[in-house]
Amino acid sequence: MAAGRLWLLLPLLLLLCDGALPRGPSVGPRYSPDWASLDARPLPGWFDAAKFGVFVHWGVFSVPAWGSEWFWWHWKAEHRSDYERFVSTRFPPGTTYADFAPRFSAADFQPEQWAQLFQEAGARYVVFTTKHHEGFTNWGSKASWNWNSVDTGPHRDLVGELGDALRKRNISYGLYHSLFEWFHPLYLLDKKNGFKSQFFVAGKTLPELYELVLRYKPDIIWSDGDWEAPDTYWNSTSFLAWLYNDSPVKDTVVVNDRWGFNCSCHHGGYYNCQDKFKPGTLPDHKWEMCTSIDVRSWGYRSNMQVYELMSEFTIIKELVHTVSYGGNYLLNVGPTKEGTIAPIFQERLLALGTWLKINGEAIYESKPWRIQKENCSDEIWYTSKGPAVYAIFLVWPKDDVLTLSSPVLSASIQVSMLGFFKPLKWQSSPQQELQVLLPSENRWLLPFQHGWTIKLLGVS
Question: Domain Glycoside hydrolase family 29 N-terminal, which positions (predicted)?
Answer without folding.
Answer: 30-361
